[in-house]
Amino acid sequence: MSLAPRAVLVHRRTEYEELLARHGTHGQAAFFLSSRGRSIDEVARHHEDTRQALREVAAAVPLTWRSTRVERADLDRFLFAPEDVVVVVGQDGLVANTAKYLSGQPVVGIDTAPGRNPGVLVRHRHADAAALLRAATAAGGRAEELTMVEAVADDTQRLIALNEIYLGPPSHQTARYRLGDDGENAPGEAQASSGVLVGTGTGATGWLRSLWLERGSALPLPAPCDARLLWFVREAWPSPATGTSRVAGELARGQGLRLTVESDRIVVFGDGMESDALELTWGQSVRLGIAERSLRLVI
């Protein structure tokens, strides 16, 4: 007998809740903001809108389903099950934060602040939650398979991201490494830079796009479902020992970019989640490429 679906509602603390955690009371938070020329009213109103959306989405879960909630800070400790339907209630970035912990579960994005969020990944309103939950489990339900990027280290550590993966120094120091195509016999080009960014078509609306624009790149940006990645080296420094001939490129499925560390420490993290990063030391290598899994986003 198969289990009933479980709706997993993913959310994060609002700005108002973060202010209360820091200052203790509404009055103290209001005083702090007013002393800096800001009012707490807008922050409190956004908090209530978010909580109301979360309540309405929870009420839309079918009575025969199971349900639970998980906060963003607890995602790395939460165990998603195959029968889960994941409902992200919040911003676009929260979908990206959740994606790395999934393995094919359908995702519904609910926008709690229409007009404030771009709505690239949270495309729906909370009033549509009941219909979306039914569609997520129906045969032939409409969904997009969004390409993801992965980093696999030589010690089997693995990291997956929806927008981009960044490799670089843990501080403002320079990262030193060798960069080359995966599988080539040559050791790759020795480089010194502030890091390497490898992004997807979903990430082409954010950090990847800013680098693409800054470089005036002729490479076409991928679409979210395209099996193609772009990569850029940030601020590569030419010297007698380091080069700048490989600072941008693209990767198709089956292709990889290999980075071998030649400094004390390099961190690798995805979608801004620095708290869940890989750490590589001198001599280790990591391969970047298209992940086998994708994000199934209900549309």
UniProtKB/TrEMBL annotation:
What SUPFAM superfamilies does its record include?
NAD kinase/diacylglycerol kinase-like (SSF111331)
Which InterPro entries does this UniProt record tie to the protein?
Answer: ATP-NAD_kinase_N, ATP-NAD_kinase_PpnK-typ_C, NAD/diacylglycerol_kinase_sf
**What PANTHER family does this protein map onto?**
NAD KINASE 2, MITOCHONDRIAL, PTHR13158
Q: What name does this protein carry?
A: ATP-NAD kinase
What's the source species for this entry?
Streptomyces rubiginosohelvolus
